[in-house]
Structure formats: C-alpha cells, structure tokens
Amino acid sequence: MHNADWDDLRYVLAVAETGSLSAAARRLGVNHATVLRHVQAFEIAHGGPVFTRTPQGYAVLPERARVIDAARDAASAMDNVARLMAGARTPVLGTVRISATDTLCTTILPAIAARIMARAEGLRIEIRNANAHEDFARMQADIALRPTPHLSDGMSGTIAARMTFGHYAAAGAPELWLGLSGLLSRAGPADWMAGNVGQGETAAAANSFVTLRDMAAEGMGHAILPCLLGDADPRLRRRYGRFPAMDVPLWVACHADLADSPRIRLVSRHLVRQLRAHRAALAGR
Predict the structure, then answer these.
(1) Where are the transmembrane segments (predicted)?
(2) Is 37 helix (H, G, I), strand (E, B) or coil?
(3) From the centroid of its chain, how far is CA 67?
C-alpha cells in the first residue's frame, strides 16, 4: 500500500468508528476539511463511495463493511510494527509515561517517581492520571499501575502489592452512603454496594476516590475508599462491621511487546520495588 493510500485509510477508519467528520477530526487532531479531503481521495482512488449520509451522520455502506474490517486489521498491524520498533530501539534513558489511578497519583507515586529519576540520570517520567485504562495499542502510555484482578489481553506485568478498601466517615456524618459512579461503578466496592446498600441510602456519588474522600470528609456520608487514602486523612475514621474489607492486586504492567524494552524494564523493576516498600499503607495496616 502506498503511503498516501494508508494515510487516507486512517481517515476513513476514523469516520467509520466515530460516525461523523467532526468526531473523526477530534480523534485525529485535525480539522473537518482535512478529514473530508482524505475520505474523498480514498473514494476516488478506489472507485466509489464508502459511506452514506444519514441524519445521524456517516454510515458505512453494507457492501463496504469488509473494507472497514480490512482497515482495522491494517491499523492493528501498523500499531504492532510501531510497538516492536519502539521496543527494539528504546534506550535506557529517555521518557517513560506511567498511567495510574488518581489515588496513586495524589499519594505515593510522585515521590516514587522522584526516587527513580534520582537513580537514573537522563530519565524523564511523565505521570498520566487516568482511572480509565489507557489504550496501549495506541501508545498512550508505557507502563500502567492498575488495581485489578486480572490484566487485559496483550498486557504483561507483576503484582507489586495489594490495595485494600475500607469503610470511612467523618464524625457526625449521616447514615447515608456515597456511591461510586462512572468507571468506579465497575470496581469491586461498587458490586458490594449494589447488593448491600439500598437506593434510598445513597446521598451522592462521584467517579473518583479522591473526590469521594473529600466528600466524606465534609460530612456528606460514608464512603468506601482505598485505605491508602482513608487512613492518611485525619478528618476521617475507619468504620468496621458492615463493609467487609476487600483487596485487589496492584499491577505494574506494560504491553507485552514492550516488556523487553531496556528502559521500560528498568522503570518497571524500580516501581515494583518501591511499591512493595509501601505494602503496609496500601493494605491498610
């Protein structure tokens, strides 16, 4: 495939996956006219339209569905080439992007990053605060610190510690709960709340444990928090009895294709060692 064809195909795939020129432009970081120009160039070069316009946006013509499937396969292959090349050429020094939850980003990770950089002159660490799982196939992060029972397909990692959750409230807080919304609604504590807390017992909700901590500290209700957050806040007291303490593995992980990169291997090894030094705080002991 010629470079121009591949470039056009990226735009066609973005429109197919987002359903509109404007959404595709936002994904690719270009303007609306640029997307339209590449889509039209692809259609002219390959003998016909790929999309039909509908009131909802752009829809792939049924007879072109296999073209979009092939485009996805091509995009995946190009991403795989990029990852393999990155792993082969990555020196020990340079930038490593670490994705972590807001709990870790606002507590122990900055100090850990500082200690790692002090040991490796020329190493630059970029911390990405992301409760959502980063898209490693699109190279948005190099290493992830994730509290999760299992890693997703294509990921490789080490369990550095276990993150424990507990029940916390401020003195005098009402006997109401603070719910877990957004991505937190898929976490283990949310499953417990769904089965044990009635709808009328919930006062408010948030999609961030850091925000839930501050809401609980303001006396808005009871919250389930990582012990790393709750134990360190003098405004809160840990409660026992109703919520059974639960924990999940805390992984240091990367895409399997980058696991042998010297720089990523070095930083991952340091992260595991430093997180293990914080095992007691992570476990709520």
Answers:
(1) none
(2) helix
(3) 30
Kindly state the helix (H) or strand (E) to which residue 59 belongs, with its residue range.
Answer: strand 57-60
Residue 111 carries which side chain, given as an amino acid letter? A
Rounded distance, CA 246 to CA 163, Å?
8
- Domain count within the chain: 3
Q: Which domain does 169 fall in, by range?
A: 163-247
Report whether 49 contacts 73 (CB < 8 A): no
pLDDT (tens digit, 9 = 90+) per residue, 248-270?
999 999 888 777 777 888 889 99
At 98, list the tokens: 């670490």
Q: Which of 62, 88, 114 is the last residue of a domain?
A: 88
Instruction: Summarize pLDDT for 61-104 with one digit per residue, the tens.
Output: 888 877 777 777 777 677 666 656 655 544 556 788 899 999 99
Residue 265 lies in a domain: yes
Q: What are the residues whose beta carbons fall under 8 Å from the beta carbon of 109, sequence distance 6 or more?
A: 98, 100, 127, 145
CA angle 87–109–281, rounded 5-degree value = 125
